[in-house]
Each structure stands twice: as C-alpha cells, then as structure tokens.
C-alpha cells in the first residue's frame, strides 16, 4: 500500500463522487429533455396530435436496463469500498479506544494509555472500539470513518494517515450533558517520533518536583548525587546523616534535619560544612516556601526514582471530563479546594457531613456509589483499573490542588 495515500478517505470520496456525479448527469439529462419536450410539443404550436405512438419495445428495454445497470454499479462500487473499510490490511498497528462519559481513552499494546490518539504516519492503524457506559460513536472526519461504540460489544475501524498532522476525533452519538466535551485528536507522528513516544515509560511518570527544582535553580552546577563534584557536599539520602559544621567559627557535629537544610539553603553563610569554601549563594525569594519544602523532602529522602504524576493520571483517566479545577460544577463537584471542604454525602440513605481527607477520597474513587455527594447524580464510574500507587498519586494531587493544563 502506498504510504502517501489516505485509503479510507479516498475510497469513500470516490463512491460519493460516482453516485453524486451519475445522479447529477441523470438529473441534467432528464431535465433538459423535459424542457425541450415542453417547448417542442406545446399545445399552441400543435393544436392537433401529430402522431399516435403505441409503444417502442427497444426504447422501453433501454430505459429499464440502463438505469438498473447504473444503480447496480452504484451498489457494487459502494459495497466494494465498504469492504475496504472493514478489511484491515495485514500488520496494522492496534490501539484500543474506550468511550466513556465524557472522554476517549486510548490504550496501546504495551500498556501505555493516553487521552489523544498517537499513531505513526504511513502505517495502517486498527482502532478497536468499546464503551464502558452508554452508546458513543467514534468519528474521524478526515478519514471518513465513523462507528458506534456499544457497551459489551467490540467493533473496529481502521485508517492510515499519509503524513504527520493532527486530526479531530468526535463522539457523534448524543451521550449526555458532557457529549460535546468528547472531542480529542489523532496526533500523527513520524515513525521515529512515534517510536520515541511509544517507548517512553508512561506519561504519568515524571521526575520528582524536588529534583526538577534542583536542576532549574542550578544547584547541580556545584552539587552532585554521585560524588562527581568536589566543590560542594554530595547529595543523597541526607536524613539523619551527621555533619561537621562550623557556626561563627565554632565547630560542632549536627544531624541533618529539616531545619538545618532550610538554613543551609536560605542562609548558607551561617552553618558552613567543614572542608568546603563559603561559596554557596543564599537563596531567598527565587525559591518559594512550598518549593523549598519540595527540595528539602527530596534531599532528605534521596532519589526514589520517577514518581507518578497525579494530574496526568486525572487527565488520562477522564476525570476532568466530569470534574473541573476552577470551582465550576460540571457533572461532578469541582476539585478546587477539596482539601478544606466538608462534603455532604448520603450513605445508605443517611445524610452525613464528612471532612475531606485521604481516606474519604480513596472511598470516593474506589467505591463512588457508596457515598453520594449531595445534589449530584450517582453516575461516577469506579476506577477499578487504577493501581493503589496510582490512586495514592491522585489523592496526593487532589489534596494539594489539581491543576488541569
Ligand atoms: C556555587 C556553588 C553552589 C551552588 C550553586 C549551590 N550550592 Fe549548596 N553548597 C555549596 C557549598 C560549597 C556548600 C558547603 C559549604 C556550606 O555549607 O555553605 C553547600 C552546602 C549545601 C547544603 C548543606 C549540605 C550538607 O551536606 O550539609 C545544602 C543542603 C545545599 N548546599 C543545598 C543547595 C541547594 C538546594 C542549592 C540550589 C538552590 C545549592 N545548594 C546551590 C555550593 C553551592
Ligand atoms: C461520568 C462523570 C465522572 C467521572 C468520569 C469521574 N467522576 Fe468523580 N464524581 C462524579 C459525580 C457525579 C460525583 C458526585 C456524586 C458521587 O459522589 O458519586 C463525583 C464525586 C467524586 C469525588 C468526591 C468529591 C466530593 O466533593 O466529595 C471525588 C474525589 C471524585 N469524584 C474523583 C474522581 C476521580 C479521581 C475520577 C477519575 C478517575 C473521577 N472522579 C471521574 C462524576 C464523575
Ligand atoms: Cu459520547
């Protein structure tokens, strides 16, 4: 197959042009003959009938057989191209698309998930369709493919993008309040870009914030984690580590804790680590208090590897389809200010006032229909596919304040 074509679109377009074109020709032909007859045989010109034709067998056969053939070719051409839409070329790359109220989720063979469809250009793509709740319909206008997704039934579409680009994906089956939000895109990447994207660990994993700050603030210009820099003390798991320091010329041994690290960063000239020159600049306003806490935590605990990014998890799992971060109520309550909220819920018909904490949030996500928030419908889907670590990361983010990009 030529990678520079859009096979599904050209197939559908050709059928459309053929049917529309032949209809147009017939319309024009019949209209012209009709007008000509009206003028040529009008009564004022021919007061008396000029001929009395009984019939014409050959003419009748022609005008029966010819239109039948035209209609049959329309059917044939349409059928062949329909089969083209259903026959997925061999070696197609498979992606599962799940429709749910009110977002699409894409899942790849290696387990990666995303809220946009990422695929390589020039390769046939098979999209396996499913729905978790109600009828949705997967529609990619640029590729002329559209198919309903039905809970419990697996269907599919396929397409091939000739080149790199971004194309709309819609839901075209009215599925409730948030129907219009079920818009996303297919991001067609070059094969190299796609391979890179596909082999990234998972989008929900990121470098911890503390590590990012150390890099952004230039701390790693002097400090290292592996002892490779001798200008400044090596970072690592610093919690409980003993230090020889001198404060105003007085030597003493201390155990590293939060307060010590805070002083070491805000006022490095106060406590000097033995054996190092007093060259560390003091960091004031450029590091906010909350960023400083992140740095300190990171230094105390050391590098524990990539962490799960709660915001990305919320995004990828379609939580933002029903929950806002700006205080506005969508289908569900807003995530804004969750931490300081007392929420009114109904449990087994009894009304309760609950303080929002990690335990409550865990229940709200794992078993959303046990405690229903007042004034909201009990339609939140249980997030059964999320691991405990993922739920923990989400809860942490919700308590800190989720932030939808
Ligand atoms: C210009 C080089 C330089 C830069 C940039 C620098 N440091 Fe330092 N840092 C030092 C030196 C030298 C010491 C040891 C002397 C002292 O205590 O001031 C030190 C000490 C420390 C200590 C105490 C470490 C221990 O093991 O007791 C901490 C914590 C620290 N730095 C954090 C930071 C952070 C966080 C940043 C970035 C915001 C940073 N440093 C940027 C040079 C630097
Ligand atoms: C189909 C819409 C929908 C989706 C998708 C959805 N929720 Fe909800 N959520 C709701 C509704 C409606 C409520 C309120 C009724 C209830 O408690 O079940 C709710 C309640 C909550 C609450 C309790 C809020 C409070 O103010 O007490 C939390 C926490 C929550 N959802 C988190 C999530 C997370 C995390 C996800 C993604 C994994 C998610 N939701 C996905 C609709 C949704
Ligand atoms: Cu839908």
Q: Features of this protein?
A:
405 residues; 4 domains; 18 strands; Cytochrome Bc1 Complex, Chain D, domain 2; Helix Hairpins; alpha+beta; elongated; binds copper (II) ion; 5-stranded mixed beta sheet; 33% helix; Immunoglobulin-like; binds heme C
* Physical arrangement of strands within the biggest beta sheet: 3-2-1-5-8
Name the beta content range: 15-25%
**What small molecules are bound in this structure?**
heme C, copper (II) ion
Give the overall average pLDDT: 87
Helix-residue proportion = 25-40%
Poorly predicted spans: none
Number of domains: 4
Number of H- or I-type helical stretches: 9
- Class from helix and strand fractions: alpha+beta
CATH architecture of the largest domain, by name, is: Sandwich
CATH topology of the largest domain: Immunoglobulin-like
How would you describe what is shown here?
There is one protein chain. The protein is an alpha+beta fold and 405 residues long. The chain folds into four domains: 80 residues, Helix Hairpins, CATH 1.10.287; 107 residues, Sandwich (Immunoglobulin-like), CATH 2.60.40.420; 93 residues, Cytochrome c-like domain (Cytochrome Bc1 Complex, Chain D, domain 2); 93 residues, Cytochrome Bc1 Complex, Chain D, domain 2, CATH 1.10.760.10. Helices cover 33% and strands 22% of the residues. Strand 16 and strand 17 form a beta hairpin. Helix 4 packs across helix 6, helix 7 packs across helix 9 and helix 8 crosses helix 9. The longest helix is centred in the N-terminal third of the chain and has 34 residues. It starts with 6 loop residues before the first helix and ends in a 5-residue tail after the last helix. Bound molecules: heme C (2 copies) and copper (II) ion. The site of one heme C has 26 residues, from helix 8 and strand 18. Copper (II) ion binds next to loops.
């Amino acid at each position: 197959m030529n990678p520079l074509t859009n096979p599904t679109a050209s197939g559908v377009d050709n059928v459309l042009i053929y049917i529309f074109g032949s209809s147009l020709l017939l319309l024009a032909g019949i209209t012209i003959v009709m007008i000509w007859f009206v003028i040529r045989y009008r009564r004022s010109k021919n007061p008396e009938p000029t001929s009395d034709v009984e019939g014409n067998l050959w003419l009748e056969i022609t005008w029966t057989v010819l239109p039948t053939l035209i209609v049959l070719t329309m059917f044939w051409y349409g059928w062949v191209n329909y089969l083209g839409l259903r026959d997925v070329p061999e070696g197609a790359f498979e992606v599962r698309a799940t429709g749910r109220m009110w977002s699409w989720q894409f899942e790849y063979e290696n387990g990666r998930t995303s809220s946009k469809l990422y695929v390589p250009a020039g390769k046939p793509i098979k999209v396996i369709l499913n729905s978790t709740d109600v009828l949705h319909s997967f529609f990619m206008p640029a590729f002329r493919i559209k198919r309903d997704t039905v809970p419990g039934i697996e269907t599919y579409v396929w397409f091939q993008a000739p080149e790199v680009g971004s194309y709309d994906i819609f839901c075209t089956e009215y599925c409730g309040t948030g129907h219009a939000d079920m818009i996303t895109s297919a991001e067609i990447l070059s094969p190299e870009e796609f391979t890179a994207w596909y082999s990234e660990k998972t989008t929900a994993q990121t470098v911890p914030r503390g590590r990012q700050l150390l890099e952004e603030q230039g701390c790693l210009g002097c400090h290292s984690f592996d002892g490779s820099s001798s200008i400044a003390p090596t970072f690592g798991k610093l919690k409980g580590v003993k230090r020889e320091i001198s404060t105003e010329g007085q030597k003493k041994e201390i155990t590293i804790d939060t307060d010590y690290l805070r002083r070491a960063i805000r006022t490095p000239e106060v406590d000097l680590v033995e054996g190092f020159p007093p060259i560390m600049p003091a960091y004031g306003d450029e590091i906010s208090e909350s960023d400083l806490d992140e740095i300190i935590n990171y230094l105390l605990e050391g590098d524990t590897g990539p962490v799960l990014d709660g915001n990305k998890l919320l995004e990828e799992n379609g939580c933002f389809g029903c929950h806002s971060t700006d205080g506005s109520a969508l289908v569900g309550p807003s995530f804004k200010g969750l931490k300081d909220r007392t929420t009114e819920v109904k449990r087994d018909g009894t009304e309760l006032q609950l303080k929002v904490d990690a335990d409550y949030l865990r229940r709200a996500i794992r078993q959303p229909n046990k405690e229903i928030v007042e004034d909201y419908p009990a339609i939140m889907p249980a997030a059964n596919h999320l691991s405990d670590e993922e739920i923990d990361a989400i809860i942490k983010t919700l308590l800190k304040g989720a932030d939808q990009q």
